[in-house]
Amino acid sequence: MSDEMSAIFREELRDLLESLEKGLLDLKSRPTDMGLVNQVFRDLHTVKGSGAMFGFTDLAAFIHEFETVFDRIRAGVLPVGPEILRLALAAKDEIPGLVDNEPDPDGRRDGILAALVGLMNPGQPPAASAEAGAQANGQGPAPDLPAAPSGPSHLRFRLSSGAFAMGARPEILLDELRGLGATEITADLTELPSLDRLDVEDCWLGWSMSLPAEISAQQLEEVFMFVDADWSLVPAEPAAPAPSGDAVAETAVTLHAPPAADTAPPPAAAAPPGAPAREKPADAAGATVRVPAERLDALMDAVGELVILEARLTELARENRDPALITTAEQITRLAAGLRDATMTMRMVPIRSLVARFRRLVLDLSDKLGKPVEFSVIGEDTKLDKTVIEKLADPLVHILRNAIDHGMETQEQRAETAKAHVGLIELSAEHAGAEVLIRVRDDGRGMDPARIRAKAVAQGLISADTILTESQIFALVFEPGFSTAEKVTELSGRGVGMDVVRRTIESLRGSLEIESKMGHGTTVTLRLPLTLAIIEGLLIEVAGERYTLPMASVQEIVELPADKAQPKKSGDFLDIRGRFVPFLRMRAMFDCAGQPGPEQNVVIVMSGENRVGLVVDRIVGTNQTVIKQMSKLHAGVRAVSGATILGDGSVALILDVAHLVGMGRSQQEPQGREVAA
Amino acid sequence: MRLQDIKRDRTVTVVTMALGAQTLAIPAPLLREILDPLPVTRVPGAGPHVPGVVNVRGSVVPLADLKHVLSITNEGHDERRRILVLEITLGGEAAVVAISADAVHEVTTVETHLIEPVPTTAQAWPPDYLTGLYRGASGFVLLPNLEMIFANLANQL
């Protein structure tokens, strides 16, 4: 198999396993939902089918038993129980190993299979189950079978001419049919054209064979499920004539494989409706295209360059005052903006892709710690740039772990406080302007500010007389080395983690905050930018140097009143429509020489929940800011989050408003504490 | 790059450059390009060793001042000033950095047995920062240990 085909299969497999896991986890809370059972069955069946098609025969064999169990559930023979779900999740975890040909020296896989089969046949030893499994395959219990026919039935099949292009492998089909007991297999060469008309890429062969009489059309349907084939089965003559002259056995069942409709003859009770026609793997290419992530990155880089060049072109056109050039530049500006938007949209991924793995995490943790937890997700469709999504996984895992390990009370404690027996953890995502807010809320014991404070003092993070607001105290848990866990558990309490969370979120140009109420729970809110690639920026000038402020944080721009032009000893405030807004002088913060001009502006920005003014010399204008990362050599300059290249080719730094304000406060604090209000 | 690593080969190709009155040799494989002076954007709060960034063909590249790092006296500069763009390993990853040179002299091949360790008594330079030195046509030529220098600069901030 070519690497490319294998990659396609693996990619599909990842999606299928994700969907499978979600289905199994959802079944835990809704065990009687037949839609979910059907979904699980379909996922398993697709994994088996494409696995076999791509030559992963061990995988297909493994899934077969697994699938049989769900087929029985589907048929209503077997109820969904916690043991089945536990085994099913364990079996699902083995699939990647099977695909990668990892050895299984402890026989773990066989153990899981045996346990699954054992569940199916509580009375029987596992060895006898293979037969039972085969019977359960879409059919009701044995008594419902028609009278045993004698003599073989005959199957003919022919692949569509384009089947090879879609990955069909006749030898695998034949192997599978041989497994069902096919004999006298002959190739049908009648359609083979003369050599000059023969296209070797097309399939010209057909096959015919004899099959044991008990092979049903439905079993064959499974064989042909993933190939585009015409096949017909002429059933064997029954041993005795049908009692009432039923014509069941006389007509050949002819099918075109893909719309696997209700052609199956067994009793209606055995095959529940609602299993929709399945998508063949090859069809997926029609509506959506899978693109490797690095190509999207390359496209984004190219668009970034284009936007920079477009700015340069616009500036040159303006300097030259050539009307034709200006018109062309304007058109290019429009095109570049369209291309930029299209590219950014392409890179947006719903947060759902992340959430799937969290469901499992929460389930496993709540089992391990004996704290029953209900995990709900709101806003799964909220989209974020894929780079942001990728980097969010680890921080969210940390936060969720903390919520269960530290936040959630034990069952006994919950009973004492008259809280619901099952704890609640809610993950929600929503858009807010140019940001996405992701919240993890639990209804656990909440955080104790006094205890955190005492711990921080004990660890020397703050001095005993530091005055802190409650939110500042909660923010201490993000400090390196901070941990209040009394003992180090396997899950948390090592004091690494939360500071990593903060660093990751900040590297994404986001921020995070904690709200908590003793006894009622904790909410961690992450604020993240929609994209990391291009932002709308406000270009400002300070002492001849230009900087970009993210437009998302800019609230308004006012003139600096003349009486505030010179720095004063005490704290400076602006009166903006009756509200006092503290402000920072950028010239002082950036150690600029010289005196500012007579007219200075103040950019009012939002930093967390506070409005802060930044005094700048001049507003240059808005621009499309293509974000370039700063090198490691400047990683410690927290007030700068990146850089961008302007139309004239010079570099402008992108300022990180939150850090800038924090830096300004610490610089000013010695002179006037009131600024830090 | 340590001295014994350099000595593994019989010769080493270097680009020599001037910093003040001192001549430095940069291993040629590290050098990506030599550029005329570029507008430098100051990074506030970055300190004197890597005070700014420059635009090198669309990338934002940090510009280090080795004069400051190696405590070499500034003697002013003229139109012979250049920017050397280097590709080095920084924290296990490839990184592009730039250094300013008061002048770039030549590309030359040095026999490695002529390169000597820096005398530990020579306190003018931090010893970690120099791989070795050799006698050139007009005085000593220093081989800076660029990997070590930039690794330290990255950790300082």
Automatic annotation (TrEMBL), chain A:
Protein name: Chemotaxis protein CheA
EC numbers on record: 2.7.13.3
GO CC terms, sorted: cytoplasm
Modified residues annotated as Phosphohistidine in this record: H45
Catalytic reaction list: ATP + protein L-histidine = ADP + protein N-phospho-L-histidine
Keywords, comma-separated and alphabetical: ATP-binding, Chemotaxis, Kinase, Nucleotide-binding, Phosphoprotein, Transferase, Two-component regulatory system
Domain HPt: 1-102
Protein purpose: Involved in the transmission of sensory signals from the chemoreceptors to the flagellar motors. CheA is autophosphorylated; it can transfer its phosphate group to either CheB or CheY.
GO BP annotation list: chemotaxis
Superkingdom: Bacteria
Keyword hit for Metal-binding: no
Location of the Histidine kinase domain: 284-532
Listed InterPro entries: Bact_Chemotaxis_CheA, CheA-like_dim, CheA-like_homodim_sf, CheW-like_dom_sf, CheW-lke_dom, HATPase_C_sf, HATPase_dom, His_kinase_dom
Automatic annotation (TrEMBL), chain B:
One biological process term in Gene Ontology: chemotaxis
Superkingdom: Bacteria
One GO location term (cellular component): cytosol
Signal peptide as annotated in the record: none
Gene3D superfamilies registered for this protein in UniProt: CheA-289, Domain 4, SH3 Domains
PANTHER family: CHEMOTAXIS PROTEIN CHEW, CHEMOTAXIS SENSOR HISTIDINE KINASE-RELATED
Identification of the protein by name: Chemotaxis protein CheW
InterPro entries according to UniProt: CheW, CheW-like_dom_sf, CheW-lke_dom
PROSITE patterns in the cross-refs: CHEW
Xref: Pfam families: CheW
CheW-like domain ranges (all copies): 11-155
